[in-house]
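Dear colleagues,

As part of the handover before I leave the project, I'm documenting each prediction I ran so the next person doesn't have to rerun anything. This entry is a single chain, and its sequence is reproduced below.
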Amino acid sequence: MRNKQLNKAEGRRQKAGGSAHQPHLSESHLKKWGIQTPSGRSTRQKTLFLLPPLFKITDRAMATICEILMPMHLGDWVRKIAILACLLLLVSCQGKNQLPNNEAQVKVARVVSGQSLEVVGMAEQPNLISQVRLVGIDAPDLRQRPWGYAAKEQLENLIGGAEQSVTLEFDLETKDKIGRTLAYVWKNKVLLNEELVKQGNAMFVERSPNHKYNQRLERAQQWARLMGQGIWNPEKSMRLTPAEFRRQNL
């Protein structure tokens, strides 16, 4: 009987041209596939039949699971549990590689300086080159020798060369005045913005409203100054900040 109902439902969907809709697996959807929530059962037993609304699945996938399991000579409860187990496995596989909304995985086209990159793979234009500026830091200008090239070289080494994947993490403000994307850059769980500051190849610069990693960046700068790293080397310290240098050399 259930197989008949299933075939009729599948036929109606095929005549309508199929469905791309992904319904929430609420109690009503479970009933649609013959999985009834027993009204007289305990709360624990009812919970078994209700999946959280964040789980989504297509009608076609649900039909396939039911077609496989329904003909089996299993007890009613065992069959229902098996269906739900399949659903949970399918959902976990679908969401496995998804990133949070405030992150994006991109490929590095080239390192421009110690604080800026060109990347591909942003948004819906995977082949378009986008400019990215590392937020919360200010690296020496390339004309500030040798510190500018030291910063660029360290960033290249941290990334590992062109065509390498990195993860961009965004704060409250995602663009600067000239349209570059502002981001914290991660590679192998290392925050590259922080590493540049810690090695004395960039300065921590607080930029409102992006404050997410201010404490980490400030501590990294304190460490670099204490250890005399890079631009803080007392024997060859940088006399002008990157911002001062750029103002003098406009």
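The first strand starts at residue 103 and ends at 113. The CA atoms of residues 10 and 60 lie 8 Å apart.

All the best with the project,
I.
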